[in-house]
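Researcher: Let's walk through a ligand-bound prediction step by step. First, I give you the protein sequence. Second, the SMILES string for zinc ion. Third, you return the three-dimensional complex as C-alpha cells. Ready?
Model: Ready.
Researcher: Here are steps one and two:
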Amino acid sequence: MTTGNVGTRVMERESGKQSPVKQVAAIRTGIASMHAQHLKGSRLNPLMWVFFGRKWITDRPISVFVIEHEKGMVLFDAGMTTRTKTDPNYWPDKITRMINNKVFRFEIGPEDTLTRQLELAGYAAGDVSKAVMSHLHFDHVGCIAEIPQAELLVNTEAWEHMITPNSVRKAVLRRDIEIPDAKWTQFEFEATENEAVAPFTEAYDLMGDGSVMLIPTPGHMPGSTSMLVQGDPPILFVGDLCYSLEGLMTDRFPGIGEKDELAESYAKVRALRERLPGMLVVPAHDPEGVEALKAHPLYSAKVAQ
Ligand SMILES: [Zn+2]
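Model: Step three, the predicted complex:
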C-alpha cells in the first residue's frame, strides 16, 4: 500500500470535507491489577518485583478501541479472553502460568467477552472488518476467535518475534494466535514524507485515505504499533507503549520493555503531540486516558460504560 498523496487528502479534509472517521469508542474485556513497578518502573530486576512486590495498582482496564470508519468498523487490539479465568490449561506450561499469575491479578466475568462488550456498546462483533494489534501479548489478542471474519493486522516484526522459541515466556501465546479461522495480515511500515505523522518517517495507511495511520512505536515489544486517528483533536492509541500520559511526558519508563527504544518512541510521540496540539494519548490500560477519550467529540454516545 502506498502512502503517497496522503498529505493532499489531509489538506482536502482540513478545507471542509467530512472526515471518514465517524465515531470512536472504548470497551474493556475485564480489569487488571498490576504491580506499581510494572506501571511506573523500578531499578530492581523485574523478577524481584514480580515475586516480592506488594504494591498493586488496581482498576486497569483491558481496553479494546472501536473506530467506526465509513469503509467499515476497525478495532485497535482484541482484548483478553475469559479463558484466562475459566480454563485451567490456559497457560501453555507451568512456568508461564506461575509467572503471569504473579504479574497480574484479573477481574474478568462471564460478560467480559469481546462479543458481549461490543453488544453492550451498541456494536456487533460480526461487523468488525479489521482489527489492528498493538502487539501480540495475550491481553491484546485474546478474543480474535470471536471475530473470524475480520482481517487481523500485525506488524511483521511482532509476528517474527512470536515465532521465536521463548516468546511464550513473554506472554505471547502462539497457540491462541495461529488459530485456523484467523485471517492474519502482516504489514510493514513504509517510508513516508506525510507531514501528518512527522517526525515519524514510516507509517502504514490503514484505510488508504490518511485518516487512520499506523506508526512504529517500539520499546514495549518488537513491532509495537500505535494508531493515529484523525479527529479534532487527533487521537493516538499507543497500546502498552506507556501506562499514562504523565509517564510519557516525563520519561518515566515502565518496568517492562527496552528503555532505549522506549525513550526514542516517547520523544517522537511528544514531538508528534507538539505538532498536533491537544492530541489525545490513549494507553490500553490507563483509566484516565479512557476518560479523556470519552470527552472527545467523536466518542460514541451509545457506550454505556
Ligand atoms: Zn503488552
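Researcher: And what stands out?
Model: The longest strand covers residues 21-35. The pocket of zinc ion is lined by residues 135, 137, 220, 240 (CB under 6 Å).
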